[in-house]
Predict the structure.
Amino acid sequence: QVQLVESGGGLVQPGGSLRLSCAASGFNLDHYAIGWFRQAPGKEREGVSCISSRDGDRRYVDSVKGRFTISRDNAKNTVSLQMNNLKPEDTAVYYCASVRSGRCHFVAGFYTGWGQGTQVTVSS
């Protein structure tokens, strides 16, 4: 069964950190571009970060640059999103997505596989 499973979400205070993980099963992530998206209540799904398969090129939306880091571990077949200095506006359900492609994009429709999402809540 081909699927993506996110983990690592939770409740954290402003300024805190979380590490999200996206684990793939049933397929090898080596040849897939991976994107992290988030969706807050009442808002559209937003691309946060992505990593290309070809050369590991990493991209970030401006609001998370310098705070979030995406990385892939092909041996573990996972992609992680380290989130530091979290802010209340980072609160959302975070999804990972995959597409068999070299380059990654922030367009949700570009991706063919999606995880179920993990909730991140930043609040004091």
